[in-house]
Amino acid sequence: MNPMNRLLHAPIFGWLSLACALVAAPEARAQEVMASWGLNSSGQLPGAMGNGIQAAALSAGTSHTAVILLDGSIRVWGSNEFGNLAAPKGSFAAVAAGNDHTIALRVDGSLVGWGKNTSGQCNVPSGSFIAIAAGGMHSAAIKTSDGNAMCWGSNGSGQCNALAGPFTAITAGGWHTVATRTNGTAACWGWNAYGQCSAPNATFTEIDAGSQHTVGLKSNATLVCWGSNFQGQCSAPAGPYIRVAAGEQFSVALRSDGRAVAWGLTTGGLTFSPRGTFSQLTAGGAFIAVVGRMDADFDGDGMVTGIDLALLLSAWGTLGADINRDGTTNGGDLALLLADWIFH
Prior knowledge:
Layout: H1 3-9, H2 12-21, E1 33-38, H3 47-50, E2 55-60, E3 64-69, E4 74-78, E5 92-97, E6 101-106, E7 111-115, E8 129-134, E9 138-143, E10 149-153, E11 167-172, E12 176-181, E13 186-190, E14 204-209, E15 213-218, E16 223-227, E17 241-246, E18 250-255, E19 260-264, E20 276-283, E21 287-294, H4 306-314, H5 331-343
C-alpha cells in the first residue's frame, strides 16, 4: 500500500496503543532483515512478501530479486514472465540473478538454472563449482577443481570467452564478465565499448559488473570504477568502503560504518539511501536491496511504517529513537522517519 494511504487509514491512536503494548524499547531491534528501494515495476522490491525476511545471501536481476533464506532455501519475487519465481527446492550456498534468469549453487557444489533460456544461459554444466554469476544473457562459474572459469549462454561480445585462471570470484555484466585472480587483480573479457573491461592495475577484495560499467573495491577500502559514466555511475564518492555493487546505470556501496551510499541514475529514488547499518547489498536494473537494520525500522520488519512512527513518538525526549544522533528523540528524527516512510 502507498505510504500516504497507510497514513490516511491508520489512526494515530491505534499506533500509540500498539506502541504501548510493545514493551520492548525502540532500540531493542530485531535481527537483520531486508530493505529495498528504487523502481518496483514488477514487484521486485520485498514489499509485503519480503517483510522481515532474514537473508543469508541475495542477488538482484533486472526486475527480480533472489534470496537464500537462513535455512538454505531460495525465495524469489518480481517478474515471473520467464518463470523466475519458480525456484527449485533444496539447500543452496549462492544465488545469482541475471537479466531474466537465475543461477544457484547447491551446497554440494552443483548448479541449477531457471528462467529465460533463449541463449542457453540456464543450461548449467555438470561438475563442482565454488562461485557463480549471471549476466544479461549469459552465466559464469568457477570450477572447484582448478579455479578456472566456465561461461555459457550468449557470446555475441565474447563474454563467454573466459581467460585462464585460477580465480576466486566472478561477476557478470550486461555483455562482459570480470573475475578476480588469486592475487586480487581483475581479469575481464567481453564487450569493451565503454572501457568496462579495461580494469586498472590494482588489488581488489570485491568486484561487481553492471550493464556497461564495473566497480571494484580495492584492498585499501577505496573504490575505482571503469566503463560507461553516462549517468555518473563511475563517479564514486570517497570511502572507505566494505562492500560494493553495480546496477544497470548506477552503483552502490557500504561505507565502513555500514551506511549505504549510491550514485549514478536517480530514477525511483535510487540515490536516496535509507538511514541504517547494513552488511549485505545487491543492485538490480533500477533498484537496490540490502540486509541490515534501518534506523527508523524500530520493529525490525524491514519497512518503515506507522508502527515505527508510534514507537518513535513513545520514545520522544529520550535516546530511544535518536535517528540523527543528536542526543534525543525530537522533530529532526520524526522528519527523517517520515522521509524514509514516504520515499521507500
